[in-house]
Each structure stands twice: as C-alpha cells, then as structure tokens.
Amino acid sequence: MNIHNQLEDEVLRKVNEIFDDEEAKQSMQFCTCHQCRLDVACYVLNRISPIYTVSGRGLAHLESDYQDKLQREADIVSLIKDGIEHVSGAKRPHFPHNDEGEKELPEGPFFNFPQIVGRIFNSINFEPVFGISVSLFLNGNIVKMVNPNWQNPYQIVANATGVYSFWPYPEPADAKGLEKEFELELAVDDPAYTPLRHYIKVTAESAGGFLQYSKGTRIYNVEDLYLIHEK
Q1: Structural domain range at position 29
Q2: Both 53 and 159 in a single domain?
C-alpha cells in the first residue's frame, strides 16, 4: 500500500513558486537557496495536519472541494511567509547557503549506516545535559555525515532533553550483500566533566546504492550515557 501526504506536494510547489518569484524580482531580499526552501517547507508541514491519499480517487475527491482548496492554499501561503521570516532569522551557521540544489546520489555499493540516537545525563542529579558537544569517530577519525544538516560534533541544546543524533555517510563496499561490523566511538570532552568514551558496534549489510531512510525506519538507539562532574 502506498500512502502519500498530499500536502507535501502542495507545500513544495507553493514554496518553489514564491521562492522563484523572489529570485526574479528580489523584492523581499531573502535567501532562495535549495536548503532554505527545504527549511521553509518543513516549517509549514510541521504546522498543518497531513492529508493522506492512497489512490487517484482519493486525490480527485480532495481536489473537488474548491472552497476547501482555496482556504488550504491561503493557509499554506500564510505559513510560508512566517517560515521565511523564521528561517531568515535563524540560518544554520554550519551550512553554506548557496544555490547548488540537490546533488546526485553517489553510486554504490555502500555500507549504509542507521541514524544513531542517544541521550546523555548528569550523573549527580540524573537530569539531561545541554551545552556540550558529542563527537562520533570511526578508526580514530571524525565521521562524515550524510549532509550538512547533520552535525559532527553535535551540540546538545537546552530544549533537546539531552538527545544527540548522527547519520554517518555510507562506507564504500566491494560488492552488494556483504556484512561488516563497524566499531564507532562516542566522545565528550568538556572541562566541567570527566572525559567520556563510549563504543558501539553497528552491523551493516552492503547495498547497491546510497539509501535514504524515512524517519524511524533505521535507527540505532544508544544506551543512556552519564557524565561525571570534575572535582
């Protein structure tokens, strides 16, 4: 069964219309790069209820209610304008804002890693820590991430309840269908705490290409980690 959120198409289409118009007229002076378009689209989609369809008949029914469609488009445009203001005021410092667009995915075979997610707590009060950086290493080297939206080192912020996440860039493989175990090292070096080193083993099977997983389908959950205060 193929279930699709129809609003993804509508939001992306309307975002591109507004951004393309800005590129032509430059009337509002906001960044129109590929990444900012995606950021604004995500901003909108996180604030509207999805509309799922499973067939052409469902899509036809959705399109048939003209008044609802007009109101939906007006709501989307309003949220896009809010999203542009939000994204323009909070650009990622680690991401180059340019107009390169999406690059073609590299050719395999690859060992594709899962997303690696975990939490870090203070060992004294068992509260989530924040304001620290967590790094991920493989064979002593900092691990490259799949794209600049994923950071390494990862800075844990106050509202993230101690959560960190990584998505390592795939490792080349000699052929498809091979199995290999990788030992990854998580490291925290902060003057307020005793240095932390934690090792995890991830088994990956090589595939023919660079796999893009939807959220939740391939996640490796690391056990909770605890930092010890320096005396």
Answers
A1: 4-88
A2: no
pLDDT tens digits along 146-178 = 877 788 999 887 777 888 889 899 999 999 999
Structure tokens at 128: 């989530």
The amino acid at 109: P
- Helix ranges (H only) for the chain are 6-25, 34-45, 56-64, 66-88
In a domain, 100, yes or no: no
**Phi, psi dihedrals of residue 180, rounded to the nearest 5°:** -145, 140
For residue 6 the two structure tokens come to: 């129809």
Answer yes or no: do 114 and 202 share one domain.
yes
Query: Taking phi first (over 0 means left), then psi (-120 to 50 degrees means alpha), and beta for anything else, what does residue 26 get?
Result: left
CATH number of the CATH domain containing 168: 2.60.40.180
222/111 same-domain check: yes
Give me the sign of the Cα torsion angle 160, 161, 162, 168: negative
Whole-number CA gyration radius for the chain: 21
Using DSSP bridges, classify how beta strands 154-155 and 219-221 pair: parallel, antiparallel or unpaired: unpaired
Contact in structure between 149 and 95 (CB atoms under 8 Å)? yes
- Looking at the whole model, is its pTM more than 0.85? no
